[in-house]
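User: Show me an example of a complex going from sequences to structure tokens.

Assistant: Sure. Here are the input components:
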Amino acid sequence: MPVNRRRFIKQGIGMVSLGVVMPRVWLTGARAQTSDPNRRVLVVIQLSGGNDGLNTVIPYTDPNYRRLRPNLGFKEADLKDGQGRSTIISNQFGFHPALAEVKQLFDDGKVAVVLGVGYPEPSQSHFLSEDYWHTANLVDGKGSGWLGRYAEEALAGQAGFHAAAIGGRLPRTLMSDRFVVPSIFNFSDYGFRTSPAFPANRPNKLAAMNALYSRRFPEGSFKGVAGGVGFDAVSGSIRLTEAIQGYTSTVVYPDSNPLARAMKMVAQMIVTIPEANLLHAEVGGFDNHAEQITDTNMSGLHALLLQNFSQAVKLFHDDMAEHGLADNVLILPWSEFGRRPEENGSRGTDHGSSSCMFVIGNKVRGGLYGEQPSLAAADLDVSGNLKSKVDFRSVYATVLEDWLDADSNAILRGRFDNLGVLASGAGG
Amino acid sequence: MASLTYAEAAHLLRRAGFGGPPQEINQLVALGRENAVDLLVDYELVNNKEFDKALGRGFNVKRPSPLEMQSLWVARMMLTRRPFEEKMTLFWHNHFATSYTKVFFSLMHVQNNVLRQHAVDRFDTLLLKVSQDAAMLIWLDGITNVVGSPNENFARELQELFTMGINDEVTGEPNYTEKDVKEIARAFTGWKFKLKKQDVFKPAFLFIPSQHDSTAKEIYGQTASFTGEDVITVICARRATGRHLVKRFFEFFVYPLADSPEDKATIEKFADVYFARDHSVKELARAIFASDEFFSERARFGLVKNPAELLVGAARMLGAGYSLQGRETADFFSLFFLNQMGMELFNPPNVSGWALHARWLMTSTLLQRFNFAGFLADSRPSVPPLRGPTISDEVVRGLAAPTAAGTVENMLSRLGPLEVDDEAKRILSDYLQTDDQGNRIEFMVNDETLRKYVRGLLHMVLCMQEFQLN
């Protein structure tokens, strides 16, 4: 239903391509000459809606799991991917059968599975819980994002195209008052267009925009925000449009997989822009209150979402390997909460709390971390949800310290255990 | 009767509607504050028959196709003589945020009509109608919520998003417990809908007693065999609901509220109106629009325009042409840019609606605001007409003055009036007086300068930070 660009053009209004003439002031991109062996790229993937952790990393031997999930649950015999290969990863746990590619990466030692991740006094509101995860601020979930604060510390004031989020909305994770992170819906629409009738007037318009958007307004005012974002939007789009022309790959990302489409864009930027090291993609649909499964637990919404996730991660990983960057990339997927252990009457699950988390990359020490919370009735909280064992901020702290070489205490405003998921000095 | 300046009248028309050309603003000035507010708020008194007829000629109003449904609403915003009706419908669409990604489009169309029909009704009535409408029953899984296996989705969002919020807006105390969520879910069991004569445009609410849990529930400390209707009545009478509605209203129509004693007092002041006027949305709106808070310095340009306000506002302020006919069924221009600017109608990002204020101003969405501005500035009516806003040469000529500075003043006045610093005026004036080689030229009004420079100036002013604000 959304009107796409082709449809719009069909109506008869053409778009002028990005001009070749532009004022020098916009061309501020830094350009590294060679690839940096110490480069560290972080790709965060938000699985919006609350992914069902119990049906992602499945405690298939736990009788309580089978009791709580009479329809949605997986038996040991179910834990086989489409080609009949087992997705069991230990004598207690197995991956959802749709996670075939992630299982391969796990077998290669590239996936750390952290069990029992959550936070104290969990909120079952999507929006509050998401804000807690975005900001790492468990007081009220307000303020800048945890990676926004990292960007302020590490990147503010440096020229270049350091970070981007795929999608029209910038996730709060990357929000900051002092550092603008571009959000990109698709590359072809990411540019400042001027009148096709007067192409030679384009430099004058860019100059006027430059001057208008260089005016100073009080920090934090809406005019101030618009000013900062608008300036970066125009300049960044020029740099980006130039750069991504240089991308080629043999990896084919299927159009039918929305996360794969986003990961292709992430790959294009990482490959062609040496300083693009902080990327974010999002995929929704995990709020499966109903029809999480259809006829069998192998079909339905959740299986499709996990299959898309698994495929997209693997294609992206292969693409990075093709460009010699696989050692330089870390993937961190997250979701605002897990789902309730006890399934509801709609072949779905209501909002839960603690869940599992993946950390994926060549420099990860693969294996199981954390601790699975007990599913026994007496051990669940008053809402019937799992009690978490690992604070999600520990995962953040680990990534900040061992991947981004950042001061986790300052960024997270507190000390959290390092989980040892990454080999110390991983990239170096 | 308080008087109303031109700038104040323009502010009122932008907020309660989408803005308008000078004659509409002057009409409000002549009425004074209270009467101007009444004219907008009591919109049922405005004769909209001609417009409805024209709409009927341009669209299948009763049974639109998906794109036609989106386009139909844009056309309403563009041309209605009751702008507040459409603005409130948009407000409620954002409040009861429902998307065609889960709900079949025809049922979204029906919901849109429910929102419009009850836009300024008692809040209890609106809430009940929306809750019993097919779109919401599907969207938050109400139809799967049955005795013995309740589904909490609606019960949670009803409290968190539609009425009270998690915590009280004034005291900060939690408004409900997880137990309340579970108990309220049971109260709403057995709510279904059916399609009359299998018609996807004709859903009807259905209560199935055998699927309803009629046992006692303990809600907010009271125990009774509550039904869904009972719960709605109970919640609408809670102080927290009045306070939360005021907060939502301010964020959309006035200014974002802070966590300060003054702003809490403001919430209380208007929550009192909600309760004194029997939960009437119309009376709440009237009181807020006529208030000193609404006309304060803080309110003026104190919000960020949402994409519909930007797109429709630009067209209405300029007096753009807008054809209801065309060889295509929909206004692809507007639908494309609303989508690109982050506000595809009938498809909010999630049940909490669109993130407002600075969250509209991302690099991608701001670029699309700039590009919308450019395309609108270049647009001209065509024969046969295309659907979508167009700016005629006559409109452009009307904006030009003999001097560059005068032309800049006209443009800023027409698109706000925008309050702009001298530096911006100089930049815009320079743009009008610079040729493609960068040489200084004298500004003169002729057909070529109108097409190139005055339309170019329009593009630039629509791109300005000031125009992004409401």
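The lines above are the inputs; the final block is the predicted structure for all two components together. Residues 222-244 of chain A form the longest helix (23 residues).
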